[in-house]
Amino acid sequence: MNKEKDWGLRLVTEERERATLSPYASRSAETRGRKREEEPCDMRTAYQRDRDRILHCKAFRRLMHKTQVFIRPEGDHYRTRLTHTLEVSQIARTISRALRLNEDLTEAIALGHDLGHTPFGHAGERVLDEKMPCGFSHARQGIRVVEVLEKKGQGLNLTWEVLDGMANHSIRKMPSTMEGQVVRLADKMAYIHHDTDDAIRGQIIREEELPKDCCDILGHNVKERLNRMIRDVISMSMDQPEIRMTPEVQDAMMRLRQFMFDRVYIGSLAKREEAKAERLVGELVDWFRDHPDDLSQESLSRLKLGDSLDTIICDYVSGMSDNYAVRCFQKFYVPKAWDVY
Length: 341
Description:
The chain is mostly helical. The protein has a domain at 47-271: Hypothetical protein af1432. It has helices at residues 3-20, 46-55, 58-62, 81-98, 103-112, 121-131, 138-149, 160-167, 178-201, 212-218, 222-237, 247-265, 274-290, 297-300, 309-318, 322-333. It is flat and about 75 Å long. It starts with a helix and ends in an 8-residue tail after the last helix.
């Protein structure tokens, strides 16, 4: 394909966005841009390039072996941080398509929203928040991953809109774009949906134990509940300048979320290994503070760029998969067998 045709592909997509997307959608040709200017791609829009960069980065692949709720589960069908991310992307794209928003921007934000997560899920995040002088937030760390750490310090140079959506996907913040707002809500819908499914599969709770008043509104199985939430968001947000739900459905969703905190996320059998995980992450931080030469050479090179040792340790430990964190702990803290030969 020659360059003239390549340029045509991007221009056709941008023109299609101008003609068909909602007035409230983000158009890729109108992005606020990147911190470092780049030549536009011949074939892909700015948001398509961001999606591809996230999909192919190392931090995204490591999500495969990071905890969602169940720490190192025995079964093959429990969610990981990667499958959670893919489910958020699917839900968010369904909503964005129905509302005529920019699906490429939505997908890029969804795929990138959890790149800063630690090993062992929120257990690891709590430890780093306690041990680091400036605290720790997986959303803030995700921005550092894509701006500083990926590509050996070059970063991915993502657009402003993707960074905004990643940084503000938590329940207490609001993204600037409609697409970011979709991902913010899809994240909550996804984990309430799939964590309930996993908890029932793991026999932590039974379907009959879920709050009846919530299920009467949302549905009496996982499929019904997810469909109800998605339909409600679409119907309430159609041709509106913000993403929202009906008060009835939003209240039922949040009460179901609170039930999951009370029965699954805190103190259940699913979380019985969390104390061990927290100690493991904490011991790794302490080890690297006492033995910085055991950090990777790529990490240590950041000392010359002015990063503090604590920042480098935080980057290194938070980037670990569950499996790698366990291997490091065994290497540093578990005695090796002695052999006279």
